[in-house]
Specification:
The complex is a heterotrimer. Chain A is an alpha+beta fold. Chain A contains 17 helices and 28 strands. In chain A, helix 15 links the parallel strand 27 (about 615-625) and strand 28 (about 685-690). The longest helix of chain A has 24 residues, at about 520-545. Chain C has helices at about 5-15, 40-45, 80-90, 145-155, 165-175, 180-190, 200-215, and strands at about 55, 60-65, 70-75, 110, 115-120, 130-135. Chain C is of the alpha+beta class. Chain C has seven helices and six strands. A five-stranded mixed sheet of chain C has the order 3-2-6-4-5, sandwiched between helices. The chains are: A alpha+beta, B alpha+beta, C alpha+beta. The interface between B and C is large, with 68 and 64 residues.
């Protein structure tokens, strides 16, 4: 069924140069040195000269998705397929002493059961067994018929309790608090505070939030006891599946194909086969039947990972002229069993003498995993709140104050643009100063990300004699528009329309591709597509040259569906007819010169706070994002909107709630874990920063989720005079803050 | 969801028979009537209820009518929330009731959810809804909310359980002196709605109302009343799109020619295990004009008995705001 | 105790007055007093002959009218309409997505006799004799309805998992209100949730579809 991988042409010796590029492993970015061709070939050309790219293209898979015809992993149904369910531990910390499967295995329709080894579970929700049955309803019955005996151990799920010396140990023999690094000279920073005219000290807390992918984590393992298997996976990394699945199925890696036709959201949480793949493969192997294991929504909340929380104690000193002179930070990363993630302070700003200590503080919760811009929204919210507090303290305009402490001119430009778009001049500089119970306020914040690519994508472009064009690569489209720009790059290079090109993606038997994490896909994939397209163009040009008076291949013009040179012109069909019987296939490799790294991003927000109910109504959000060459303006704007909206959710509503006594998550469903909905949306203005003239592709997905939290929190303060330092900023915190403010001001 | 038997009787009497079983295990395993199922099915999916039989009421003719005449308004228990909120007569003569219906959940839920079902919703307390937690209301020995995460729990009438009643219709219906007709094995009962709901300290801790297992609501009646025309329901949600009330206020007044109050109803939602009527605040209003000072004092009286838990003190100023605003609104009509 | 409470006590006693009992269809139910409105269901029972259906348990056959076709499936009474469409019909109808399974996200929205409902909160046994329309019944990739076309045109989707639900909800709403305001569109789809963040463009698409249909 699957096309065999095309033999790659053997590399010819070419002069090489070494460059440093970012590489993201599960969302954690590292710089690595790689070799690229010294003579890289033609570039993208000026950003404003494209025929398709940098225009507004509707996504090519749109018609399938709006009509229910797009087939996701969750939609796979195979003959004889079994449905799997997981039994979760109700205890946050316990030893499993016995698992009795007898009753469960007797239920008609139950075909396979896998108990976990007798082990220690360290979070509520940890899987203890999995069942495969003929319907999901029967599987539900079966997991409830499994009897598990536990020896319950003490647990701790709240950070402020886990840090106490007498707290239960999350992992025996290990401290809950683990030092992860120190930067700077504490004494120097402390001494620098003497030069400050004003000092702000605060503790900033970001909650653990969830990816809440609408398509839960899961796989359909199509293995029936033979010598090969196909894995339909909801994953951000097609190529992260086969090796691990093959290991569980005891098959050679080459016998396992991963397929990701469409996928319903990942946001950093879907790499590798994961727990779901491990269990699905085991069940499939046991039953010799296809097994579908999709997490339930409850499973998704308690075992699919989350964004690490943070607890940050910050102190900064500022001079009356607006210069920040010193900063000290103690950062606790709240990653449950995992180390968590958090960008370092003072996050972008120049703050004179700085010192920071970073710790991981463990609790009996599932490990956090990468989530869109890992660690950055946490750091940004805290430092942007701190910067805002400093500005108010010395009575300086927050935009001017930021510019004073930012070196990079791009931020200056983007701050000015944002201020203009939001109408900063309408802002009342006195926090809480507007009359009446409905108070408007504005705030702003900035972010930073890499967004560069890496050398992993192998793209094939095949042109047939009938004129059809196919671009193939194993990459996955997460909803970011990968299919669309992949087609568009080829179409533009060949002078065709987007409809003239078809793409095949999402299959591990196609050319290799990187996992989509850390905004790396566009910058990894598009250079390879461009390279393949250029090579295809040259191959066609060579073939048609005799028909056009023998121009040099690079002199042949591909435009408007025609192939022309020396005053002569062929239609695309005529040109294709000149190809060999098998058509031509070109192979594209990554080119570092076609991509770049380093994006900024500035967000402005206006809110209206009802100070008598604590309700925060977002009025308007503006985000300005640079990203080199925008491959598709329409989908890039959608991504910027999406970044703002996810950040809005984190700032005002979302949050995992854990019960200290029970050690359980209390709100593992969409009723109680509150994603923002249609009535929460402000007017949204996504702005592509076209003053970024870099002729290079850079990923922007992470950049546009980072700063909105700080912008919204600062807007709430501007509106009310209440500084909520803990997310989410819910009505109870505003009302209690106002009560305390009132009490304080009454002395 | 546990397996169950599905029955669709054609009459109320038959439905009652099918709900009557000699014995059942836990009270949450007894047969349940199902109308829209928009709450019941969620409780079954989280195994909070595990009925052995569902008795479908939608095959019984006539339970889905709205009648408005000189005697008042009669709403069949199976009238959907959409039908109620869109009924022209209800919107005109009982505006607060139409507002309360509209405030509920989402259009999809209101298209199936019924008036009777709305009154019989089970609590939204996190602990109650978690399958793994056996709290006081599920036959356990502890109300975990009392000393736990109680941001959304009761500030009035709590103990030993601190749930809040989730219904939006209930406070407004209580304010408009509704009665509910209930049919069971022993025949029919007509119950004033404010006697229908039970405090955890008074009634069966496993239930929120006086309904017996085999009893079903057939209709709700609201008398013709001068209060209805000046009625409103203000609901405060943390998330406007879809949420239960953090607090709500159902208010109705009768104003004399000089705009002084001659009758008033103030019922709070989202703050107590039952719709919480505040007679002292109602009494205070009599003979007064709805000035800002009077509104503020009324709101203060309405929450005077509040005993917040560790994390829900904010509900006091919030509910006060809603009382003030609701009164201001009905006074300005 | 307030006065009104006393009044209602009196009323309750009247209703329970055994002298006013009457029997209807051999069923011992207390009849309505003239002072309160008619007991609607009693009248209706007299008018209509409804048939009690046989209780169902175990595996049962249901016939569903899905997008104009009679579709048969073997399900349990507890099987939701959503799971029936996705897991039991052959070929499957997978446009409606299973996301929250609790009536809190809208991805499973289908039309039941033209009205949007959450198919995860409807039992298949309760959906027979109703017209079920899923997103597939509204249009196809080649021949989309106005809302579907506008979704593509306005990029009102990213991962696309919430999209069938939004399309279904909005398509039904525009039939009810062909010329909505932005506020009305927001209100109409407040029971549908998106994680990628497509809302602004969903609103634009809905308004564009309304405008396009009127032209």
């Amino acid at each position: 069924m699957q096309q065999q991988p095309q033999a790659q042409p053997s590399p010819s010796p070419k002069p090489k140069k070494k460059i440093r590029v970012p590489r993201v492993v599960n969302g954690v970015e590292q710089m690595v040195e790689i070799e690229v061709d010294a003579d890289a070939g033609p570039g993208w050309g000026p950003n404003d000269k494209h025929k398709l790219l940098n225009h507004r293209m509707t996504r090519v898979d749109g018609p399938l998705k709006v009509s229910g015809a797009a087939r996701y992993t969750y939609d796979q149904r195979l003959p004889g397929m079994l449905y799997a369910r997981i039994l979760r531990s109700p205890h946050a910390h316990a030893r499993v002493t016995k698992i009795d499967l007898e009753a469960a295995s007797k239920i008609p329709g139950v075909k396979g059961i896998i108990p976990a080894p007798l082990m220690e579970v360290r979070f509520a929700g940890a899987p203890v067994a999995a069942v495969a049955a003929t319907t999901p309803e029967i599987a539900d019955d079966a997991v409830r018929a499994i009897k598990v005996s536990y020896e319950v151990l003490p647990h701790v799920v709240h950070a402020h309790m886990a840090i106490r010396p007498d707290a239960p140990k999350v992992i025996a023999e290990e401290n809950n608090l683990q030092e992860k690094g120190k930067n700077g000279d504490p004494e120097k920073a402390e001494a620098a505070f003497a030069n400050a005219d004003a000092i702000v000290e605060g503790e900033y807390i970001t909650q653990r939030i969830h990816h809440a992918c609408l398509e839960t984590h899961g796989m359909v393992v199509d293995y029936r006891g033979g010598d090969s298997a196909t894995i339909y996976a909801s994953t951000q990394g097609t190529f992260t599946i086969p090796a691990d699945a093959a290991k569980e199925l005891e098959l050679p890696e080459s016998a396992v194909t991963a397929s990701v036709e469409h996928m319903g959201g990942g946001f950093g949480s879907k790499f590798g086969i994961g727990l779901e793949g491990f269990l699905a493969c085991r069940l499939s192997k046991q039953t010799k039947s296809p097994v579908k294991l999709m997490f339930t929504r409850y499973d998704e909340f308690v075992m699919a990972g989350n964004r690490s929380g943070s607890w940050q104690k910050l102190k900064a000193g500022v001079k009356n002229d607006g210069t920040i002179v010193a900063m000290k930070a103690t950062q606790y990363r709240l990653g449950g069993l995992g180390p968590g993630s958090q960008a370092g302070q003072p996050y972008i700003y120049r703050m004179g003498d700085t010192y920071r200590e970073v710790y991981a503080l463990h609790t009996n919760e599932d490990s956090s995993v990468a989530m869109r811009a890992p660690g950055h929204p946490q750091a940004s919210f805290a430092v942007e709140s701190l910067v805002d507090e400093l500005a108010y303290k010395i009575k300086m305009d927050p935009v001017a104050f930021r510019k004073k402490n930012l070196r990079d001119e791009v931020y200056h430009r983007q701050l000015e643009r944002g201020a203009q778009e939001i109408g900063w001049s309408r802002r009342n500089p006195v926090a809480g100063g507007n009359p009446g119970p409905l108070k408007r306020g504005m705030g702003c914040a900035i972010g930073i990300w890499g967004g560069g690519g890496n050398d992993q994508c192998k793209v094939a472009v095949t042109i047939s004699r009938d004129g059809s064009v196919l671009v193939a690569v194993g990459t996955q489209d997460l909803g970011t528009g990968t299919r669309t720009y992949t087609r568009a790059i080829v179409a533009e290079e060949l002078g065709l329309t987007i409809k003239d090109v078809k793409e095949r993606i999402g299959n591990s038997k196609l050319g290799a591709a990187n996992p989509s994490g850390g905004s790396t896909t566009a910058a990894s994939l598009s250079p390879s597509v461009k390279d393949a397209a250029i090579k295809a163009r040259m191959l066609v040009a060579e073939r048609v040259a005799p028909l056009l008076g023998n121009p040099k291949p690079e002199e042949v013009v591909f435009a408007d569906g025609k192939v022309s040179a020396k005053g002569q012109s062929l239609t695309w069909q005529q040109a294709a007819a000149a190809l060999p019987a098998a058509g031509i296939t070109s192979h594209g490799e990554w080119r570092a010169d076609l991509q770049a790294r380093g994006v900024h991003g500035v967000c402005f927000a206006e809110v209206e706070v009802d100070v008598e109910t604590g309700h925060v109504k977002p009025i308007k959000m503006v985000h300005i994002q640079d990203g080199g060459l925008p491959l598709n303006r329409l989908t890039m704007e959608s991504q910027i909107n999406g970044g703002m909206i996810q950040s809005l959710g984190m700032t005002l509503w979302e949050g995992r709630v854990m019960d200290a006594q029970l050690g359980m998550m209390l709100n593992p469903g969409f009723g109680d874990y509150k994603l923002p909905g249609s009535l929460e949306m402000p007017e949204m203005v996504p702005i592509i920063d076209d003053d970024d003239k870099r002729e290079a592709v850079i990923g922007i997905a992470e950049g546009c989720i980072i700063p909105a939290g700080g912008a919204l929190a600062n807007a709430v303060f501007n509106a009310t005079g209440v500084r909520v330092r803990e997310l989410p900023i819910t009505p109870d915190k505003i009302l209690m803050g106002l009560m305390n403010t009132t009490v304080l001001s009454r002395g | 969801m546990k397996a169950f038997e599905w029955s669709s009787p054609a009459s109320v009497n038959e439905a009652v028979k099918m709900l009557t079983v000699a014995s059942h295990g836990d009270i949450d395993e007894a047969p349940r009537p199902i109308a829209g199922g928009q709450d019941l099915l969620t409780t079954m999916k989280d195994y909070t209820s595990r009925p052995t039989r569902l008795v479908n009421l939608k095959n019984i003719p006539g339970l889905n009518r709205i009648t408005l005449n000189a005697h008042g308004l009669t709403i069949g228990a199976l009238v959907t929330l959409t039908e109620l909120e869109e009924h022209a007569g209800v919107r005109k003569s009982f505006p607060g009731l139409a507002e309360a219906a509209h405030s509920i959940a989402t259009p999809q839920i209101r298209n199936l959810g019924t008036v009777g079902g709305n009154l019989c919703q089970r609590p939204r307390c996190w602990y109650f809804r978690l399958e793994e937690v056996i709290c006081l209301k599920k036959g356990g020995s502890e109300c975990y909310a009392a000393n736990g995460e109680n941001k959304y729990n009761a500030i009035l009438g709590g103990g030993p359980s601190f749930i809040v009643h989730p219904s939006d219709l209930a406070p407004m219906l209580v304010a408009l002196d509704a009665t509910v007709t209930v049919v069971g094995a022993a025949g029919k009962r007509v119950i004033p709605l404010d006697k229908f709901f039970t405090l955890p300290s008074e009634g069966n801790i496993r239930r929120e109302n006086v309904l017996k297992n085999e009893e079903i609501i057939t209709e709700i009646h609201l008398p013709e009343s001068p209060l209805a025309a000046r009625s409103t329901y203000l609901k405060f949600k943390e998330r406007e799109s879809l949420d239960f009330a953090l607090a709500s206020a159902a208010v109705a007044v009768k104003l004399e020619g000089n705009r002084s109050v001659s009758a008033a109803r103030i019922v709070l939602g989202g703050v107590a295990p039952i719709p919480w009527r505040v007679p002292a605040a109602e009494k205070f209003l009599i003979g007064k004009n709805l000035t800002p000072e009077v509104l503020a004092e009324t709101a203060k009286i309405a929450l005077a008995d509040a005993k917040p838990l560790e994390k829900n003190a904010y509900k006091v100023p919030l509910a006060q705001t809603l009382v003030r605003r609701a009164l201001a609104k009905v006074g300005s009509v | 105790m307030t006065k009104s409470r006393d009044d209602r006590e009196a009323q309750k006693q009247t209703d329970h007055d055994p002298g006013r009992r009457r029997f209807l269809k051999g069923v011992g139910i207390v009849g309505a007093g003239a002072a309160i409105a008619d007991h609607l269901w009693i009248e209706a029972e007299a008018e209509q002959e409804a048939k009690t259906q046989q209780p169902l348990s175990g595996n049962v056959k249901v016939v569903l009218d899905v997008n104009g076709q009679q579709r048969e499936a073997q399900v349990e009474p507890r099987t939701t309409l959503l799971n029936t469409l996705r897991n039991h019909l052959d070929p499957a109808v997978t446009g409606p997505k299973l996301v929250c399974d609790m009536g809190t996200c809208g991805a499973c929205t289908v039309l039941l006799d033209g009205k949007p409902v959450y198919s995860c909160l409807v039992l298949a046994v309760d959906a027979t004799n109703k017209k079920i329309t899923t997103v597939e019944g509204l249009g196809t990739p080649e021949n989309p309805n106005a809302v579907q076309a506008a979704f593509v045109e306005n990029d009102a989707l990213m991962c696309g998992f919430c999209t069938p639900g939004f399309v279904t909800t909005i398509s039904a709403y525009l039939k009810k209100n062909p010329n909505p305001s932005l506020a009305e569109v927001r209100e109409a789809c407040k029971g549908n949730f998106c994680r990628c963040g497509t809302y602004p463009r969903v609103f634009e698409a809905a308004l564009a579809a309304a405008k396009g249909s009127q032209a």
